Amino acid sequence: MKSKTFRETKKRRDKKMQDTKQQWFKEAKFGLFIHWGLYALLAGEYNGKKTDRIAEWIMNDLDIPAEEYEKLAAQFNPVEFDADGIVRKAKEWGMKYIVFTSKHHEGFAMWDSKCSDYNVVKATPYGRDIVRQFREACDRHGMKLGFYYSQAQDWHDPDGYMHRKDNSGKNYRAYLERKCFPQLRELLTEYGEVALIWFDTPMGTTREESQEMVDLVKRLQPNCIVSGRIGNGLGEYMTTGDNFIPRLPYEGDWEVPATLNDTWGFNKDDHNWKDAEEIIHLLVKINSRGGNYLLNIGPEASGHVPEESIKILDEVGKYVNENEEAIFGTKRVGIYAYELDWGMLTRKDHKLYVHVFKPRRRVELLNIGNRITGAYLVADKRPLEFETGATCEGCSSIEVEVPEEYFDRKNYSICLEMEEEEPIFEPIIG
Ligand code: FHN
After folding, report:
1. Cβ–ligand 1 contact at 200 (below 6 Å)
2. Percent of the chain with pLDDT over 70
């Protein structure tokens, strides 16, 4: 058992760095995940029983039979849904791409699927194609659009996988050919330029089957990125565990999918919202380590987006917009000798950005060996006074004077211009 774990770990370590070859993804840094499906109608509760897990899993976790669950479709009438409004908000929040759940594990298609009537156009009183509305809104606003697609788990199809259930008698191949492959084909041929397919939970999918999915995507849209959760090591970028952030800077293309509270799909009882400041710090931490932050909203069944998420993201958006230069297009920062308790670093070529999260009169950094040629406040590009030299202990030091009206402020950033392309982080001596 031990040696198997070691071999697996080694195999992963030897795996080459993941590369989407898509510049937009490398620069994006911040995206919007949207989890929306029939589960929003239950909002975490079925027949008086509440789920204590993520809301979109209610069918599986409360053992709701498919014949019962599918009746929800007859109630789905999201009159408040406004694709344009959501896309406009994502733009305002500084996000560069949207990933929408076209079909989650429940098996319900949020578009007019030709190969399954279990879809939003044919099975609901609403009768309108949600995916198409997102497509059109994204085109209007110049936003990249990707589709989440649950390739293996399909709790509606008798041959789709279910977690923690007996899958032994199932004909997975039949499901793939009847539903998964044709639906992917529809998404990739009828909905314009698809930025990425966000595969999720491969479960028993073999390497050959995952490869078939990748080939299908690439044949139809060569620039469409395949997410890490395709499984079998075939993803074009690394997707971390949900809400998990790599401790160290991580090479290659990667993304952290994350929630604003503790659920993806809407749960009326989940009020455990992170605050805007926490989200800003998480975003900068992920960017600093080289990744993208894909942050989720879970609209209610009516289409209304919970006020709390809007409030948090409006606040986050202010930081992102004011400091866009220090976020969008930044690259992984190497390992700096110190953990700063007041801020974090991001970088571009010849620029080191210092994100300041706590009030201070001057920003001081030690053990950075670059020649600093200038300093400015990112928000308005005003030049800042700075001094470089050495401490009495002999460490190189940089001190930047904070403008007086910023003395009591937190959450802003400063750019240090460097003669060298990359920061030179020196070891701690003493
Ligand atoms: O099971 C899903 C879950 O519902 C949600 O979609 C997340 C998003 O990353 N992915 C799976 C669990 O990792």
Report:
1. yes
2. 96
